[in-house]
Design goal:
3-stranded antiparallel beta sheet, single chain, alpha/beta, 28 helices
Amino acid sequence: MAKMALVIGVSDYEPGLTPLPGATRDVEAMRRVLQHPDVGGFDDVKTLLNPEPLVMQEAIETLFSGRTKGDLVLLFFSGHGVKDDNGRLHLATRITRKNTQGELIRATSVPASFVQDIMSNSRSKRQVVILDCCFSGAFAEGWLAKDDGSVDVKAQLGGEGRAVLTSSTSTQYSFEQEGSDLSTYTRYLIEGIETGAADLDSDGVVSIDELHEYAKGKVQEAAPAMKPEIYAVKEGYKIHLSQAPTEDPKLRYRKEVEHCASRGEVSVVSRYTLDALRESLELPPEEAVAIEDEVLEPYRKYQKKLQRYEQVLVEAIQRGQPLSRDTQNELKRLQRVLSLRDEDIAQIEAQVTSQKKAIPPSNKLAAVIQAQPFFRREAVAPIKPSNEALATSQSETPASPQIRLTRLPAISVPFLRNPKLLIGAGITTAVALIALFLVKLPQPPQNVEPASTVSPTVSSVAPTSAQDFYTRGDDKYSKQDYQGAIEDYTQAIQLYPDHVEAYYSRGASKASLGDNQGAITDYDQALKLKPDYVEAYYNRGASKANLGDNQGAITDYDQALKLKPDYAGVYYNRGVSKAILGDNQGAITDYDQALKLKPDDADAYHERGKSKYRLGDHQGAIADYDQALKLKPDDTNAYYNRGVSKALLGDNQGAITDYDQALKLKPDDADTYYERGKSKDRLGDKQGAIADYQKAAELYQTQGKTKEYQDVLEQIKKSQ
């Protein structure tokens, strides 16, 4: 019995068909896993890139010819699927096109009926076809109208001993090319085969139906509108495709993560389960982090798409309401490209309508950076704003933006848990993915209008010039009357359209009211008028971070640092964004630079400590918390975080001391009671532990945190 495969990818097309650069990467990835002796174990895997019809037909015929009954024959195709006017499926080649009447020129493609005939004449009774293509072909508008969105794949490619896997059965786009990624469907086929995660019954073999179930589940987490299907006859469902390890600790951990992350997040109990399993398997933290990140990737991508659509919708609404028919059609096209369901769109529209703007409001000037889009909103920890003043003058370098110093998760040690931890955060990088940051914006500069020497002192006389309106706007801004300030800055701009400082200051006022998209628009205009405006890059970066675009924020911070390399606050902010994106080493480098420029920045020490924590350097984290507390002795979160790190190193008595201090500063902190109780529990002080658990339960119940309340009750039962 032989295992033979032909892997075809078409990335280059004639005008009218969208290029699919990911198809060539799909081919290489599929070849790799099929040919690997310990995975696919195929005897021969031939690849074919961008063929013409006759070459493709000959290769398919050669694949199925001369086979025996026991041979396993697999055909994989990544490219466009096209239908003719009779609804028959054709596989597009690099020369596939339609005529001026919108009819498919059949000679330029390979009909599915040809593949069916070749398969029917083959002696092999184990035949697998995998089609990663959209049946609509994603043609231009005129051609799309002729595609009704369905193809009877089973009728055209089904048969005895056959299994046909398809990425979609309708007009939804099957491809999602982002950077160097594979297409969505192939990505999860490869993942299921290569890692063994598709071996759902843990029998050491990945069968076709298991691979379908695994890939379908993953695809619909990332792109719910896509509906992968399987068509099989007789034993086709149970064809064994590849091998899977049965005693691999990585695979065992992955399957546990898959189970715990079934809804895109992990519960408190499951977090403990994963930590305990990782320790028992002696799995290095960095490997566990990588596995969790990979498992959560589909959900993250889905959340990112939702956020992208929401931002576009809001911008469209802000530019004109009601939406024009053209705009509605464009939004519908965006929905298709993002593979979002109608129910996804309905929920977004309802939310935007209720808020009357797309961007969730932030706390005054300290704008809240949203949690990463791949997390459920209801699981985000409540915002705890900084109490520091937010003032800087024109002549000063703006103070380091303050962030909400989130709790470090209690992880990696038995009995520790973080009630706010979200799945996807990983073992040592969890906080980077759930932190809610508060970014401080500098006060708008004053008296920058060209050729003006007017004093910033506000006159009781009604304003008549651009400078008068600008000065009055500054006064309102200083009194936190941001809406009034916006109105005056707008008047200044109307009188003097090139008033760069009015644009900048209006942007800062909008950001203070939570309108970060509007703020970005004003900062854009300020930068057009003054391309070397450091503070505009700085603030635009902060607003982008508030909207979850941390990569865009980093780009702006980079530009600000090119113009002003000694800007401590920008290094700090860039470190925050890098930490959110999981680049904790890069974040530490930025915090180092911020501290060189401003050695008394307590928050920079605190954040650097948290990044060290995420990288497993708990001793280094404690050293940074020590410095933070020397500079800011009333920082409740620093005591809490230091307590967590001490507990991780086995110093439970030291942890209790820190929790005691945190509770002196904030007596109603349920989390701290809970963690102190667990440290007491580890030291054998059952009575003290139960007392702390009971206090935590009481506070959780009062605060309406039902889930945390239930978790504490379970802990009390275990301790009794």
